[in-house]
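lol so apparently i was supposed to do this last week
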Amino acid sequence: MFAYGRSNFTWNGTLRELQGSWTERRGPAMTASASSSSGLEVLLSALQSGGDVESTLNILNVLDELLSAGTDRRIHYMISKGGSEALLIALVNAGRSFSPNYTILLPLLHLLAKVGHRDRRIGMKAEEAGAVLLTLNLLRHNAQHSSRAAACLWAIQVFCSSVSTANLIGANHGLDVIYGLIPQYSTKHPHTIKAAIDAFAALLCTKANVSSVVSKGYVSGLLRLYEDWHSKGSEHVAIRHGLLRCLHKVTHSTAGRQAVLCQGGIRLLYETTQTCLLSKGLESLVELSVQLMRKCLPKIPLPLTSDQSAYTFPLPGGPHAVPETDAEPDESSDESDDDDDAEDKPEADYDDDLETDLNKLRLRPDPDRPKELLPQYSRLCPELSHDFQELDLSSEPDESSTASSSSSSDEEAVRLNSFPFRCSRRDRRRSTAHSDSETEAKGHTAAVGQLEARDFHSHSSLLSTSPHFRTVVREARGKAPTGQRGDEQDDEEVDAEESHHRTMIDKLLERHGACIPHHDPKLYRAAAAKTISIPGFSILAFPDFWGHLPPPGHEPMAPRKPNIQRQKVFEDVRRFLNADDIIDQVVFDLEDSSLQCPSDSLRFFSKFECGNLRKAVQVRRYEYDLILNADANCNQHTQWFYFEVSNMVADVPYRFNVINCEKSNSQFNYGMQPVLYSVREALEGRPHWLRTGTEICYFRNHFCPARGRKRTTFYTLTFTITFKHNEDVCYMAYHYPHTYSALKAHLKVLQKSVDPAKVFFQQQNLCGTLAGNWCPVVTITACPASRGWRDMHQLRNRPCIVLTGRVHPGESNASWMMKGTLEFLCSSDPVAQSLREAFVFKLIPMLNPDGVINGTNRCDLNSEDLNRQWSKPDPVLSPTIYHAKGFLYYLNSIGRIPLVFCDYHGHSRKKNVFLYGCSLKETLWQSGSVVNTAGLKEDPGYRTIPKTLDRLAPAFSFNSCNYLVEKSRSATARVVVWREMGVLRSYTMESTHNGCDQGIYKGLQIGTRELQEMGVKFCHSLLSLTKDTKALYSRRINYIDVDHNVLDHKSHNCFEDDEPPCVEEIEYSTDCPTLKGTDLDSDVNSNMASSDEEDEGDEGNRRARHGRGSVGQLQQSSTKSRLFPHPMRQVSSEALSEKRNCVSINGQIIS
Ligand SMILES: [Zn+2]
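anyway here it is w/ zinc ion bound
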């Protein structure tokens, strides 16, 4: 850890001087060995050669004086000079004799403990010197002699830093000897008792010793000892702490945890902890006990029949479902986000991940497909072939005309990429947008009718039970022309009711619908009717249909309640202790719609677009466990949730626990709240998704997968919601939802909103998805001023900007940023107009429609992360990536390399919004590569956009940006577009799910307003790239200060953890705290302080009365050496402190 050089130590020089004088006076006997060695080595050599008692004592004293002052560096220096070996040899020499001299042995053992504690190889050295069993023997003989026993125990404790030494002691009954020295509560010899406990804990570092302790039943003994010491008052914290540490070590093994469980350990720990809670001094005991309880709670499989997603989709040409295996999870599989969760990995690994192969960084690989396949993408550049004949007409092409005008290859592509899948008949009918069959076409109409009729779930309970809504409905009904409700019990009645309901919803919309910009519920309903999902959704979630307005004002991050996690863990432990109080009733099951739940429980629902909730279990009256659905066709990636909840009682705190989260930490520990939407509030004119929830925390729990995947650990996200209204219908989500249907409806609204004489806006289909949905591509640019050659030429030479997003379905923030970008680019804002005149925008707002629709978090239906497919995308299994890349190849082939490429993402673990780019030089620098970068030319222009955004966008953080190319990210859009397409400005834009820790939004959670603003500001930053920047700026916006000269070489490693460690331990498998060197020193010193064996017990007791604290105080008062109850001490101490050059050897004072 440290470099120890002689020059570091002033005292070393002193000793060298001393050595000179010593050789002079001592004569030639010592010179041979001393001439080439330092004074310290002389002392060590003298120690080993075993002189008389007095001189040995003196050497020990000098050494102790030297080592007690100053830092650990001195001890490490001594170790480097063979100090440990010298002490061990001296120990063996002294301890072997028939009647060992404890005057020497005691100080030797003490010094050995201090030095050995800092010597990582002390165990091996002790074994080699034969000191291990000798010390154990000394201990056996001095079990009744507390001071000597303690000294032996400390030495044994430090020897156990080596596994083989600990096993050697264990094999020689050391465990039994030492366990025998831990008594029930006693006021005598607390230091020795503590030494025994610490030594016992140290021995438990090996599997063999732990299993031996478990099989001998010592676990029960340790628990009883802890209970006894605990019950006899609030003292002896150090001893109780030590006993808990022993238990911690034991519970590293399954058998140990089992033993604690069987011996009633959890109840004992729980009850003792409750009595400790009030006392601040007992904090460390509470913490250790809580960790122990978490560790020992029995593993409970998730109450699922299978870990496999409830949604399966037969993949073309492959096995139709991923078989469920008991195999261990593939440790090498990269589960981290793009650029997202790399902070999981330590920094060293991160640097290893950097690409250092210059060829890989520089050379473009060959295209992944033949050139002949590229012309098909010419259709995606409609602005190039458009003749703008209608420039003077005010045509408003609707989607059908757009669709029909798009080339036949669209339909071809859809047909190629849509496959039959397991679903209800109705859904198959609904997928007929792309089918010729007449009967199916009829079915399509019927399906739309059905979807429209039902509109949103729980409407009946909402409308029939709430008095308020009854009034609302009655009013609406009064004006409905076809609102009669039939009483006949047949299908017609159902139809009538549905159409009646539909009318009601329309009336409600008329009366209560807010005016939400760029949102039209009826368009949404129409778009949703064509959306194809695996389960065949027929119900709309109310917020998506009705619309969302950001609330007025900002929403600050939620403060974390002190010890909130501990409280929640206690509640979870009580489930185990008082199992009879637990209701344990399934109230929602995605796979069982016939499920009946009690009338007074909450109702859950998630079978709608983007919905994700697999199961809800009522645990207590107001507490529910929620289980999320894994990504389709797969058994993992849970994080995103979106569900409906109803039948609540107002003003009662409900606790929700999402129990199968997978990430090892979450922004929920750092002020983030989930979002909630209340239908009742919306009907009263407040259609807002709001950050809601208290008592939020995220921690590792004791659940395990239902089957297989044994090593998987789950985390609980817990939050408490107090609903405002009785019998409301509410929706809760991980983040502001944004559905695929919302995108389609939005594009339609935008298309209607633009002036076709000014804005060229065209929506096309990139390709069909696996499930048969469309993947929209939008072209936005300015119409030419005229059809004259000059204007048309300018249009055809505008650089391209390619923006993509939502490849990861759980990152809905990406869609909100994209929404801001789209609306801005279509707006009449002068900056937008300038941008349209300068560039052609190509947007693929949702690269993973199927994932978004089916509520997956990470993957597409093929259970692959699409942002790892860009190197060699499969045309059948990853069609959107295959064609997006094909389109980029095409742009390259016609000489229109995009000026900017940016893929919009969300980041689950960081705050702010930031960019990741690609820089060859920075990657080489950061990786410490030996490649000489001096001759490498790199355009620093990749920094212009981030630098501009830093000034323009309040949520943006330049310091979080980074431009490094990682091997593990080599198949992401950002890296592939940079390397293979040669796009200098190729980015991933990452937005927080939480909020900002800098700028004007500091301390606030991010909302849709801020996300949309970010999308707008990104567009603003593009102005900095226009050729005629100055003119544009003076004309449009004066406040942007564009700085092209922005390259600074400060490299930020954005992969280091954004957050300080969480105040409470999220994991429970962490090792219990190890003893610090100073702790041991203080114990050793205190032992030396009491010279009189007879008094020791009482004095020790007096000291220990104040627990751990007193040991610490004692240490302070005894930092100066206390080794020797010997007259010489006085002399040597003076010699050192007053005359630095004086040392006493063999009674002689040398100066
Ligand atoms: Zn992402």
